[in-house]
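re: ur question from earlier - yeah i can do the single chain one, its not a big deal. heres the input i used so u can compare w yours
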Amino acid sequence: MSAYSDLTAIARSEGGTGSKACIARGFGSASGTYDTASRLQKAMGDTMLARIPGNFEPTSILDLGCGTGWFTRKLANQYPSAAITGADLAPGMLQQARSFSPETITWLNADAEQLPLADNSADLIFSNLMIQWSTRPETVLAECQRILKPGGTLAISTLLDGTLEELKQAWTKADPGQPHVNRFAHHADWQQLTSRQLPGSTLETATLTLPYDSPMALNRELKHLGAVFKGEERRRTVTAPGRFKAMCAAYPEQGNGEIIASYHAGWLYWTKAT
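and the output i got, formated as tokens:
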């Protein structure tokens, strides 16, 4: 039984991360504001890039969940001789990516759980903050295993339980019983899944914090990322201003009047056996 086999049921009660259609629509609508808001995404992706061995020379690269192509372009600059494909579920993100990228990059509108790519076809699969939106990460990992060439490298970043805990607690006080924050996998479940499915993989974790002027500034950044609450139990009407005010009042402030938001980050690295 998968460590994530009960995730769908939990999603209904705790919010989850929403349906694929909802995810694609949300991120697609944020394609024009994503790059200016993606502080965390850039930091986590840069951590992965720095972890790739300097003597590694891939000839074929897949950027899985490429979004606006920020890291697809970085990979193209770092490995100018490689054939690079950027794949994403959201057509709006790919449209943005094409607009700012060289024609040498191939773009693919595809579901990470069922990729139209050949077995053993990629030397490097780079996936930055995508897999946490899947309710079947074991299927995504299986696809990466299938596509990766023997000796190839897989680098994946994700968010884990504890992410946006301050926001979650503030909303719990302001609007009890109503989920407002996306749910992410527990560290132990992610460790169990990756250890079983990718023997010899390395999982590194850290808690990153970002400052904001106010809880509303945090909410605005999440909206600009397309990463607002996507769970099926979300309200279908606009949240009342009074509830937002109550959430802001409940959110803990720092001494300088700012707030911080915590992100429990995970980086997974694996090399396929030859």
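The longest helix spans residues 39-51. not sure if urs matches, ping me
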